[in-house]
Amino acid sequence: MTNALVGAALAGAAFGGAAAQNGGPAAGPKVETFTLENGMDVVVVPDHRAPVVTHMVWYKVGSADEVRGKSGLAHFLEHLMFKGTKSHPAGEFSNTVSELGGQENAFTSYDYTAYFQRVPKETLKTMMEFEADRMTNLVLTDDVVLPERDVVLEERRSRTDSDPAAQLSEAVSATLWMNHPYGLPIIGWDHEIAALTREDALAFYEKYYTPNNAILVVAGDVNKEEVRALAGETYGKVARRADPPPRVRPREPLQVAARRVAVADARVRQPSVSRVYLAPSYRTAQGDDAYALDLLSVVLGGGPTSRLYRALVVEKGIAAGAGSWYGGSSLDDSRFVVYGSPRPGHSLAEIETALDAEMQRLIDGGVNMDELERAKTRLIADTIYDLDSQASLARTFGSALTTGMDVRDVIDWPERIRAITPGQLVEAAKKTLQLRQSVTGILESAPAGDRT
Amino acid sequence: MTNALVGAALAGAAFGGAAAQNGGPAAGPKVETFTLENGMDVVVVPDHRAPVVTHMVWYKVGSADEVRGKSGLAHFLEHLMFKGTKSHPAGEFSNTVSELGGQENAFTSYDYTAYFQRVPKETLKTMMEFEADRMTNLVLTDDVVLPERDVVLEERRSRTDSDPAAQLSEAVSATLWMNHPYGLPIIGWDHEIAALTREDALAFYEKYYTPNNAILVVAGDVNKEEVRALAGETYGKVARRADPPPRVRPREPLQVAARRVAVADARVRQPSVSRVYLAPSYRTAQGDDAYALDLLSVVLGGGPTSRLYRALVVEKGIAAGAGSWYGGSSLDDSRFVVYGSPRPGHSLAEIETALDAEMQRLIDGGVNMDELERAKTRLIADTIYDLDSQASLARTFGSALTTGMDVRDVIDWPERIRAITPGQLVEAAKKTLQLRQSVTGILESAPAGDRT
């Protein structure tokens, strides 16, 4: 259910809402943007509820930008970014955030890598100094790189290799994407992580961690001019040192074959079936299809009032859970997922048949205005609940801007959601929910039995 | 069943046999090799049965060496190699071969691209002159490149896009290979072929079509010294102009999920089920596993006396056909395939169950010496029948040398096949025939029904 463009709604909905309360048109949030001379984009999202700021730097590079054979490199570099510089040895940045009572985090996705701190507003410049410093002065020696590689390998072992559901998920992705690098795991394949070197990390850093490939997002108790001044004194001094290549990844061919992937493992306690459809993203969709798919995910499988939950869990009583989600926020195509897990005594085949029947019923029978309106209210409201988190606010803009959207798209999101018609929703469902462009993933509790 | 290393046997078996007739040990063929000063390898396979020669140039580059997003480039360049040079305009080379009553061909695979002529022996030098000329003097203008791209697109449409079995095969490959470029079609994805340019082709040509990346194979009524002299006067004058990168492709992770792919199409008249297992190749296998897998493919599914045919077609009468094959000749890992097609009134599920039962029976019950000896005799004999074709003779060495084998491997092949024990065969079957590293492909005649 997590979805950066659902996240995106939060800003648009909330600020739009505020503007509407003032009696004007839905004017959107007071988001301000500008660009430093070295090419670094800056987004300022004023949020004056408390004297804190969320400071994020987003690099327009993720695992899908890696060279084949070097999977995991973007994520590995994210780890290495905490290894210190000449002026600030490893640990100093994190200790500073911690002493200020702040929080920090970093994450790598297919399309972006981001670094985050939430701190008292008066320490914003300190954060900028640290972050600008490691944008250009990172020091990597084998003494720190090689042990960190073991940390990443262990992370992979504990999160993926020892979890049948994660193994299935990885195989489903590798199967869904016949050509596009989204088929490779963000953390990387074990044998390729093990071969990553200091030189690989440095080359990736030099190629992509340049200010003209970065976006600064500051949300919090600041205004544009304050941020402009501070950013100019810190990030503004970082020289542009590379021109990253255009983000053109191999596209999928027309998919024509339904695929199935199964993992059977003694450790599985709750079997499940999921169907992953290749779907357009907000960036790649025609017309308003991505908006329609976001609503479809709510109508079909968003929570206990959704069609799948009512049919499989409540009415038929065959499923312990069922739902759907759509991840529309990606630079290239994305996925729409439906899933269900059987109650004891019911089979995965029953669940799959019931999922299919509900999808077919929606396509054949359509949705009525009431149902669609409830979904719109729910989808937009969900995002407003998120608004209390300043981090979500900042994340919304960072993820949008690194996946091919702009600030306007974020601001206009609620309005375009509200405009979707039942016909558009059904049309998007018809186009997307096609077996020939899907993978069905089966997770079973039967003992593995290596063959047959 | 076509398999270059099965092909490879032909030379070894035949020449070895000839040596044995002379009372000596199986000494192998009188294959001679040398290297020109510019790095071009030369293989001479004397064959004096008729005054003809087979002249081949093999480039150590195939579709698996393409950059992602440029699928089809190796094959496209193969087409463009017939577009002429300054000294020999388009058509002149082919017309010359034709006027001599000769044959010509060219082909692109995952690991190599090769050009072939079979002509009267006295015209060998002419062939070398033409081939050496287009190794370095190819002229490409948009006037010839763009129409040829349409030819390739049409080739793809007629061979793949309009054939459900070919569509399934492409999707099975894309599914089997989670990381390795063997998952991409040799001919390329439609949308990527359509975007290939003259510049792409020329850059690929400059990078890979250099004498130090090529192997000349001459089979026929010539000896080493004649070939050395002619090659020196022609190919020897081509300058080395690039150093192709090491052929290190992304490797597969440990595969842990069984996958299924289905295509249902009204045009399918004969439904079928096939199971493709990830298998080691001659180059990547441990010990003698590849030899054992070649024999396994005969025991299990090589023709009407094989286990699968006897069980499914003859005894149970449920199948119209059934068999297996192994493609061991590749630079990286390969595949082992079993398949069957139902008779009317029998289901694909029945066929699949029966295939599984026969594989399990072999693993549990083993094979006896008699059965294995028959398979060895058959496999080696099959290759001898091929010997009448001088092209096969040349192809054997070209494909071996471009997929990481050497002349010795080819010559020793029959002897190593003869040494495989029943235990080795069963062990290789156990290791390879594991669902978790397989894709099951279903081809059905039911109307497509785009979704559900």
Write a concise synopsis of the structure shown.
With 452 residues, chain A is of the alpha+beta class.
Please characterize this protein's 3D structure.
Two copies of one chain form a homodimer. Chain A is an alpha+beta fold and 452 residues long. In chain A, 44% of the residues lie in helices and 17% in strands. A six-stranded mixed sheet of chain A has the order 1-2-6-3-5-4, with helices on both faces. In chain A, strands 7-11-8-10-9 form a five-stranded mixed sheet, with helices on both faces. The longest helix of chain A has 20 residues, at 142-161. In chain A, 53% of the residues are buried. At the A-B interface, helix 6, helix 7, strand 7 and helix 12 of A face helix 6, helix 7, strand 7 and helix 12 of B.
